Amino acid sequence: MSYHSQSYAPSAPPAPDPNGSGYPYPPAPTNYYGHTSYGSHGQSDFPPGTHPEVIRSFQMVDRDRSGFIDESELQLALSSGYQRFSLGTIRLLMFLFKNPRDSLRIRPKEFAALWSCLGQWRAIFERFDRDRSGKIDSMELRDALYSLGYAIPPSVLQVLISRYDDGSGRRVELNFDSFVECGMIVKGLTEKFKEKDPRYTGSATLTYDTFMSMIIPFLVA
Amino acid sequence: MSYHSQSYAPSAPPAPDPNGSGYPYPPAPTNYYGHTSYGSHGQSDFPPGTHPEVIRSFQMVDRDRSGFIDESELQLALSSGYQRFSLGTIRLLMFLFKNPRDSLRIRPKEFAALWSCLGQWRAIFERFDRDRSGKIDSMELRDALYSLGYAIPPSVLQVLISRYDDGSGRRVELNFDSFVECGMIVKGLTEKFKEKDPRYTGSATLTYDTFMSMIIPFLVA
């Protein structure tokens, strides 16, 4: 299955091929060049076996080798493997993947996890973008989220997709950036809910403070 | 107490004086000119006693007299009495004040309610903006929200205000637009929570579907 990245924004670099041998997701048993990332990159904080492209993308923006990258650097780093995500999506990704104790910055380990997750989502997106238009509609979004393990009510789906309605009356379609944004909102909120429903009963009791603390980070992301 | 609206964006029109006799909030017992809005504006849907400025602002943008205004029209209509709010704030206001059964549009009655609410919030904002800088800091935001009836946990306040941190290391300050956005997020989420906690116990039991349906509209607003 080849993917025509040209259907995305013209500035986007070629997407990694999810089925290619060099693709970092699922985790390769050893790394691309047959030696550990540690060995070739000094005191790297990347997990063993991290694909060199992931390390290169991170180091390209972390010029002072501080071991952290900020929002705009993350935007640039991901653009080498995926595309230039909107700042809204980048903020959401950073919020969901950064260490909760850190301020707004990403470490190598978290960057590798994010890169892998995006690889999986790209594969799902491509599977449901059957006509290779670079866009999926609301029913395809529902199926894509379902295949990621999220069964969301139709009313929620409708509200979610209304974000991308330009008011022209045309059928709403999502590009990969918007798909990632939608999916990360659903993933993030679902995980927060599950924390409060550890036995998966389908309902949770929340105090007002907990409720507010759970949600507001999503609003400011 | 006079308010120097010059400290806001230069394009902002003069703010209504909350203590002036012509100010539409709190509701005047009769309207400004001593006759009902209905009489002077034909088949108006404005409540009796609506201030003519509110009606004028609405009708200025509702050129076809359809009785509805959309997002960008709301932005323009409010700019005559307050300032030009960001589209993010406008979407949040529309979501919170429109009839839930309507799509993204505002009717006269809702517009009048929104205008009144903003008048109250402007008065609160001015009270806490003690140096008349046109900005309030996080502690003033906390006190302002408290005076509106919302006691939010410090951790939530911190996350909320981080939205407006430009990363420069300077103390975060909010202009009226950001204050309204913050306040409306708190107001909206609190009201949603209260619906599920009608006896005000401070905690609520939510199903996953309810939880998602409650929150996602705020994320897409």
TrEMBL record, chains A, B:
Q: Where is this region: Disordered?
A: 1-26
The yes or no answer to whether the keyword Calcium is present is yes
Q: Which residues form the EF-hand domain?
A: 49-84, 116-151
Q: Which GO terms describe its molecular function?
A: calcium ion binding
Coiled-coil features, chain-numbered ranges: none
Q: Which domain of life is it from?
A: Eukaryota
- Keywords in alphabetical order: Calcium
CDD domains listed in its UniProt record = EFh_PEF_Group_I (cd16180)
Pfam families xref list: EF-hand_5, EF-hand_6
This one is known as EF-hand domain-containing protein
